[in-house]
Specification:
By secondary structure, this protein is α/β, with parallel strands linked by helices. It is built from 9 helices and 8 strands. It has a 6-stranded mixed beta sheet, sandwiched between helices.
Protein backbone atom coordinates (compact mmCIF):
# COMPACT_ATOMS: atom_id res chain seq x y z
CA UNK A 1 0.00 0.00 0.00
CA UNK A 2 1.22 3.57 -0.76
CA UNK A 3 0.78 4.65 2.87
CA UNK A 4 2.92 1.74 4.11
CA UNK A 5 5.67 2.62 1.63
CA UNK A 6 5.63 6.22 2.88
CA UNK A 7 5.97 5.05 6.51
CA UNK A 8 8.94 2.79 5.57
CA UNK A 9 10.66 5.70 3.82
CA UNK A 10 10.17 7.91 6.91
CA UNK A 11 11.66 5.17 9.13
CA UNK A 12 14.66 4.82 6.78
CA UNK A 13 15.15 8.59 6.82
CA UNK A 14 15.00 8.61 10.63
CA UNK A 15 17.65 5.84 10.80
CA UNK A 16 19.88 7.77 8.41
CA UNK A 17 19.51 10.92 10.53
CA UNK A 18 20.47 8.96 13.65
CA UNK A 19 23.50 7.42 11.94
CA UNK A 20 24.70 10.82 10.74
CA UNK A 21 24.16 12.16 14.26
CA UNK A 22 26.35 9.37 15.66
CA UNK A 23 29.11 10.07 13.14
CA UNK A 24 29.17 13.84 13.70
CA UNK A 25 29.06 13.59 17.50
CA UNK A 26 31.86 11.02 17.58
CA UNK A 27 34.06 13.03 15.21
CA UNK A 28 33.48 16.26 17.16
CA UNK A 29 34.21 14.49 20.44
CA UNK A 30 37.41 12.94 19.07
CA UNK A 31 38.58 16.35 17.87
CA UNK A 32 38.02 17.76 21.39
CA UNK A 33 40.11 14.93 22.91
CA UNK A 34 42.88 15.49 20.36
CA UNK A 35 42.83 19.23 21.02
CA UNK A 36 43.25 18.58 24.75
CA UNK A 37 46.05 16.10 24.00
CA UNK A 38 47.99 18.69 21.98
CA UNK A 39 48.17 20.92 25.06
CA UNK A 40 50.02 18.28 27.09
CA UNK A 41 53.78 18.43 27.72
CA UNK A 42 54.11 14.97 26.15
CA UNK A 43 51.07 14.59 23.87
CA UNK A 44 50.25 11.10 22.66
CA UNK A 45 49.27 12.04 19.10
CA UNK A 46 51.97 13.85 17.13
CA UNK A 47 50.03 13.86 13.85
CA UNK A 48 46.78 12.40 12.50
CA UNK A 49 45.05 12.14 9.14
CA UNK A 50 41.59 13.59 9.88
CA UNK A 51 40.08 12.25 6.64
CA UNK A 52 41.02 8.75 7.80
CA UNK A 53 39.32 9.50 11.12
CA UNK A 54 36.04 10.41 9.38
CA UNK A 55 36.23 7.36 7.10
CA UNK A 56 36.83 4.97 10.00
CA UNK A 57 33.97 6.39 12.07
CA UNK A 58 31.54 5.98 9.18
CA UNK A 59 32.77 2.58 8.05
CA UNK A 60 33.16 0.73 11.33
CA UNK A 61 30.94 2.51 13.82
CA UNK A 62 28.07 3.81 11.72
CA UNK A 63 27.97 1.14 9.00
CA UNK A 64 29.00 -1.58 11.49
CA UNK A 65 31.69 -3.23 9.37
CA UNK A 66 32.83 -6.30 11.30
CA UNK A 67 36.65 -6.30 11.62
CA UNK A 68 38.97 -3.30 11.90
CA UNK A 69 42.70 -4.04 11.51
CA UNK A 70 45.05 -1.63 13.26
CA UNK A 71 48.77 -1.85 12.44
CA UNK A 72 51.27 -0.40 14.94
CA UNK A 73 54.97 -0.11 14.11
CA UNK A 74 58.12 1.74 15.11
CA UNK A 75 61.76 0.98 15.79
CA UNK A 76 62.89 -1.69 18.22
CA UNK A 77 62.27 -0.44 21.80
CA UNK A 78 60.25 2.55 20.57
CA UNK A 79 57.27 1.66 22.78
CA UNK A 80 55.04 -0.32 20.40
CA UNK A 81 54.26 -3.10 22.88
CA UNK A 82 53.59 -0.61 25.69
CA UNK A 83 51.12 1.23 23.45
CA UNK A 84 49.30 -2.01 22.54
CA UNK A 85 49.25 -3.21 26.17
CA UNK A 86 47.66 -0.01 27.47
CA UNK A 87 45.19 0.26 24.60
CA UNK A 88 44.22 -3.34 25.44
CA UNK A 89 43.91 -2.44 29.14
CA UNK A 90 41.58 0.44 28.27
CA UNK A 91 39.50 -1.85 26.04
CA UNK A 92 39.17 -4.40 28.85
CA UNK A 93 38.14 -1.66 31.27
CA UNK A 94 35.34 -0.26 29.07
CA UNK A 95 34.33 -3.30 27.03
CA UNK A 96 35.44 -6.92 27.43
CA UNK A 97 38.31 -9.20 26.42
CA UNK A 98 36.47 -10.55 23.38
CA UNK A 99 36.27 -7.04 21.84
CA UNK A 100 39.84 -7.15 20.54
CA UNK A 101 42.66 -9.47 19.46
CA UNK A 102 46.37 -8.68 19.25
CA UNK A 103 49.13 -10.20 17.13
CA UNK A 104 52.84 -9.44 17.49
CA UNK A 105 55.52 -9.73 14.79
CA UNK A 106 57.92 -11.03 17.45
CA UNK A 107 55.89 -14.23 17.75
CA UNK A 108 56.45 -14.92 14.05
CA UNK A 109 60.26 -15.06 14.16
CA UNK A 110 61.52 -18.12 12.30
CA UNK A 111 63.01 -20.90 14.43
CA UNK A 112 66.80 -20.46 14.61
CA UNK A 113 67.41 -22.59 17.71
CA UNK A 114 69.52 -25.07 15.70
CA UNK A 115 71.67 -22.27 14.29
CA UNK A 116 72.19 -20.77 17.76
CA UNK A 117 73.11 -24.17 19.21
CA UNK A 118 75.57 -24.84 16.37
CA UNK A 119 77.20 -21.41 16.77
CA UNK A 120 77.44 -21.80 20.55
CA UNK A 121 76.50 -18.23 21.44
CA UNK A 122 74.73 -15.15 20.10
CA UNK A 123 78.09 -13.48 19.47
CA UNK A 124 79.26 -16.37 17.29
CA UNK A 125 75.90 -16.53 15.53
CA UNK A 126 76.21 -12.85 14.51
CA UNK A 127 79.68 -13.54 13.12
CA UNK A 128 78.08 -15.86 10.57
CA UNK A 129 76.20 -12.85 9.16
CA UNK A 130 72.84 -13.76 10.70
CA UNK A 131 70.51 -10.84 11.52
CA UNK A 132 67.37 -10.76 13.67
CA UNK A 133 66.60 -7.31 12.29
CA UNK A 134 65.73 -7.92 8.66
CA UNK A 135 62.25 -8.86 7.39
CA UNK A 136 63.41 -12.29 6.26
CA UNK A 137 64.03 -13.28 9.90
CA UNK A 138 60.27 -13.21 10.45
CA UNK A 139 57.64 -15.41 8.81
CA UNK A 140 55.66 -12.48 7.40
CA UNK A 141 53.85 -14.78 4.94
CA UNK A 142 52.30 -16.68 7.85
CA UNK A 143 51.48 -13.47 9.70
CA UNK A 144 49.82 -12.08 6.56
CA UNK A 145 47.77 -15.27 6.14
CA UNK A 146 46.66 -15.05 9.79
CA UNK A 147 45.65 -11.38 9.46
CA UNK A 148 43.63 -12.12 6.32
CA UNK A 149 41.87 -15.01 8.09
CA UNK A 150 41.01 -12.77 11.05
CA UNK A 151 39.79 -10.02 8.72
CA UNK A 152 37.53 -12.59 7.05
CA UNK A 153 36.09 -13.68 10.40
CA UNK A 154 38.11 -16.87 10.94
CA UNK A 155 40.17 -17.63 14.05
CA UNK A 156 43.86 -18.60 13.84
CA UNK A 157 46.49 -20.36 15.96
CA UNK A 158 49.50 -18.06 16.30
CA UNK A 159 53.03 -19.26 17.10
CA UNK A 160 55.14 -18.18 20.07
CA UNK A 161 58.86 -17.33 19.99
CA UNK A 162 61.42 -17.84 22.75
CA UNK A 163 64.01 -15.05 22.58
CA UNK A 164 66.48 -16.93 24.78
CA UNK A 165 66.54 -20.23 22.86
CA UNK A 166 65.42 -18.83 19.44
CA UNK A 167 62.78 -21.59 19.27
CA UNK A 168 59.46 -21.03 17.48
CA UNK A 169 56.56 -22.97 18.98
CA UNK A 170 53.72 -23.37 16.41
CA UNK A 171 49.98 -23.12 17.14
CA UNK A 172 50.61 -21.72 20.61
CA UNK A 173 47.81 -19.14 21.01
CA UNK A 174 44.32 -19.07 19.54
CA UNK A 175 43.26 -15.66 18.21
CA UNK A 176 39.60 -14.69 17.79
CA UNK A 177 38.32 -12.67 14.81
CA UNK A 178 37.16 -9.74 16.95
CA UNK A 179 35.94 -6.26 16.01
CA UNK A 180 39.34 -4.66 16.71
CA UNK A 181 42.49 -6.54 15.65
CA UNK A 182 45.77 -4.98 16.78
CA UNK A 183 48.95 -6.04 14.96
CA UNK A 184 52.25 -4.78 16.34
CA UNK A 185 55.82 -5.17 15.18
CA UNK A 186 58.82 -3.91 13.26
CA UNK A 187 57.53 -4.67 9.77
CA UNK A 188 53.79 -4.17 10.16
CA UNK A 189 53.77 -1.12 7.85
CA UNK A 190 56.32 -2.59 5.44
CA UNK A 191 55.46 -3.69 1.91
CA UNK A 192 54.57 -7.23 3.01
CA UNK A 193 51.64 -6.23 5.28
CA UNK A 194 50.78 -2.52 4.98
CA UNK A 195 47.89 -2.95 2.52
CA UNK A 196 45.89 -5.02 5.05
CA UNK A 197 45.39 -2.30 7.66
CA UNK A 198 42.48 0.08 8.10
CA UNK A 199 44.38 2.25 10.60
CA UNK A 200 48.17 2.57 10.40
CA UNK A 201 50.11 3.83 13.43
CA UNK A 202 53.82 4.71 13.76
CA UNK A 203 55.44 5.13 17.19
CA UNK A 204 58.16 7.80 17.03
CA UNK A 205 60.82 7.84 19.77
CA UNK A 206 64.16 9.73 19.86
CA UNK A 207 67.27 7.61 19.22
CA UNK A 208 68.84 8.10 22.69
CA UNK A 209 65.72 6.78 24.43
CA UNK A 210 65.50 3.83 22.03
CA UNK A 211 69.13 2.90 22.76
CA UNK A 212 68.61 3.09 26.52
CA UNK A 213 65.50 0.93 26.41
CA UNK A 214 67.02 -1.55 23.97
CA UNK A 215 70.05 -2.41 26.11
CA UNK A 216 67.88 -2.78 29.22
CA UNK A 217 65.68 -5.27 27.39
CA UNK A 218 68.63 -7.10 25.79
CA UNK A 219 69.86 -8.21 29.23
CA UNK A 220 66.44 -9.76 29.95
CA UNK A 221 66.73 -11.68 26.67
CA UNK A 222 70.14 -13.11 27.51
CA UNK A 223 72.22 -10.70 25.42
CA UNK A 224 75.05 -8.57 26.80
CA UNK A 225 78.56 -7.34 26.01
CA UNK A 226 79.87 -7.64 22.45
CA UNK A 227 76.83 -9.63 21.29
CA UNK A 228 74.45 -6.88 22.43
CA UNK A 229 76.62 -4.15 20.88
CA UNK A 230 76.77 -6.01 17.59
CA UNK A 231 73.03 -6.53 17.44
CA UNK A 232 72.23 -2.93 18.36
CA UNK A 233 74.44 -1.67 15.54
CA UNK A 234 72.52 -3.99 13.24
CA UNK A 235 69.20 -2.77 14.70
CA UNK A 236 70.13 0.83 13.98
CA UNK A 237 71.39 0.28 10.43
CA UNK A 238 68.47 -1.92 9.38
CA UNK A 239 65.96 0.52 10.91
CA UNK A 240 67.18 3.14 8.43
CA UNK A 241 66.32 0.79 5.57
CA UNK A 242 63.20 -1.07 6.69
CA UNK A 243 61.44 0.84 9.49
CA UNK A 244 61.96 4.62 9.54
CA UNK A 245 60.78 5.01 5.90
CA UNK A 246 57.44 3.37 6.81
CA UNK A 247 56.44 6.41 8.91
CA UNK A 248 55.19 7.94 5.64
CA UNK A 249 52.59 5.13 5.45
CA UNK A 250 51.09 6.01 8.85
CA UNK A 251 47.68 7.63 9.41
CA UNK A 252 48.69 8.42 13.00
CA UNK A 253 52.14 9.18 14.44
CA UNK A 254 52.32 8.50 18.19
CA UNK A 255 54.78 9.86 20.75
CA UNK A 256 56.89 7.02 22.20
CA UNK A 257 57.82 9.16 25.23
CA UNK A 258 54.24 9.41 26.51
CA UNK A 259 53.71 7.78 29.91
CA UNK A 260 51.81 4.50 30.14
CA UNK A 261 49.15 5.92 32.50
CA UNK A 262 48.38 8.73 30.06
CA UNK A 263 48.10 6.28 27.14
CA UNK A 264 45.51 4.32 29.13
CA UNK A 265 43.72 7.53 30.17
CA UNK A 266 43.32 9.01 26.68
CA UNK A 267 42.42 5.64 25.17
CA UNK A 268 39.76 5.15 27.84
CA UNK A 269 38.34 8.61 27.03
CA UNK A 270 38.13 7.73 23.32
CA UNK A 271 36.45 4.37 23.97
CA UNK A 272 34.04 5.95 26.50
CA UNK A 273 33.11 8.68 24.01
CA UNK A 274 32.32 6.17 21.26
CA UNK A 275 30.39 3.71 23.43
CA UNK A 276 28.40 6.43 25.26
CA UNK A 277 27.28 8.07 22.00
CA UNK A 278 26.36 4.76 20.35
CA UNK A 279 24.39 3.70 23.46
CA UNK A 280 22.60 7.07 23.49
CA UNK A 281 21.30 6.49 19.96
CA UNK A 282 20.17 2.89 20.54
Amino acid sequence: MPGEILIEREIDKSKETNLNGIAFRIIDGLKDILSEDRRQKQPLILSINEQMLIKIVKEFIVNKRRQCLIGITGESASGKTTLVNYISKALRKKLYNESYTSLCCDDYYKDTSAELKAAGSYEELYKTGFSFDKPEAINLDLMRAHLISLKNGCGVNAPEYDFVTCESIPNRAYKNPTKAILAEGLYVLGKELVDLFDIKVYVFTPFDKIKERWFTRAILRGKSGAAAEHQFNDVNSTAQIYIRPTMKNADIVVNGLTGADYIEDITTKIISLITDIINFYK
